[in-house]
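Predict structure. Input: Bifunctional 3-(3-hydroxy-phenyl)propionate/3-hydroxycinnamic acid hydroxylase, 485 residues.
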Amino acid sequence: MTDSDCDVLIAGGGPTGVTLAVLLARRGVKVIVAEKEADIYPLPRAAHIDHECMRILQEAGVADEVMGGSRRASRYDFRNAKGEVLLRFGGAEQIGSGGWPVANMIHQPSVEASLRRSLAAFANAKLHSKWELQSFADDGDGVTAQIETPDGERTIRARYLVGADGARSPVREDSGIIFDDLNFEEPWLVVDVLVDDYSRLPSDNLQICNPERPTTCVLMGEGRHRWEFMIKPGETAEQVSDDAFIETLLEPWNVKGAVRMERKAVYTFRARIASQWRKGRVLLAGDAAHQTPPFAGQGMCSGLRDAANLAWKLAAVVKGEADHRLLDTYQPEREPNVRATIDMAIMMGRTVCITNRWSAFLRDLKFKLGRVLGKLPGGPPDYPPISTGAILKDSVGAGSYFPQPVSVDGNRLDEVLGTNHWLITRQDLSSRKLAPFANKLEIWFDEQAVEAVLVRPDRYVFGTGDSNLLQTSWRHVRRTASTRP
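Output follows.
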């Protein structure tokens, strides 16, 4: 296909779309991002990025900048109406396997600004504001899109179209793709504040499981804090959004004079997954493909994981290094992880959103008993590894997440080995490149009891075993999207 304006047209210039664009541009793919808004939405939305997604932002060239404006809480507590701890997740400030702190509270507009600056450095990528996708047609050889621009309607020809255009995604709707509704729908009031006196605010992230008014209180990026209040039956969005009403909600927190309101918004927290993430040359990513309640802090993270999974596959297909069927592994690999994160968020939400006093009493009793018996988890469960797709299924560790060690002088493994796939043998650990990471990598090799590993560009393990077989199998899966030679 030689008559295209770009290899990949991305509808939506939010964090998922721009991250995908940066990762594609780094791989030599020509990208256009069409964003209907004039500028970045200036107020906070997502509040959390985990260590794996910080690693993705590292590849996008913005991790240090994002980290500089982020904050960390040592604990995530679920407390009842009396303030008693029902469930506590600790260790959020520790370094995770992705090579960054486990949990990082961020200011989304600042993250998006960093990503856009990174994208602007690539000659083969362009983000156009006030470009709104009107329609598109997939003819099997490419996608022709009609876009309304400030200068009138424009036709863009692309090899692939990615809808990263949010929960109301026109790309998804125009493709006739329906949602699988996971039956969670709760209206909440979100209140974001600017902080003048941190000493009067909680330093931990909190879920207040009070049947009178379930409430979330969490840190955000530097200078900000957030409360979320469940809206009771009979209350209207207009009523709860009134400044005087919000003042009464904040009264028990004793923060008057310590904070200034920046944003108030009513959201309906939902859990939904699109039935189809690829339809021919059209793909979905981020909120266009899935929506999760915010209790596990995985909304934006899930979109960034989509971008990391999709980027290397799209690049390989566009550059003729892989068969287009490789893209069919995208949804089977990502959907189980998304469903697990949504299940976790729903579990947390249903723990928090109990408004019946008797049910709340029984919940509290259950958690107290679990604490006494030592049966409560110390943190969220590990999300499932990739179980099917572009992996060597029968090999040890296939589909698991490969860690990023940090050397004593602060270097990270990805910065040394680059963005492509890696073949690492146990003998390689003594090389000049890997010696600074050898101790931690050797632990991984010992735990898996393997001599070689092939790591995919999104840092999931393709497979382990004989190095020659790994190389042969990796070439084969890219050609056929099957691990069967």
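The mean pLDDT is 93.
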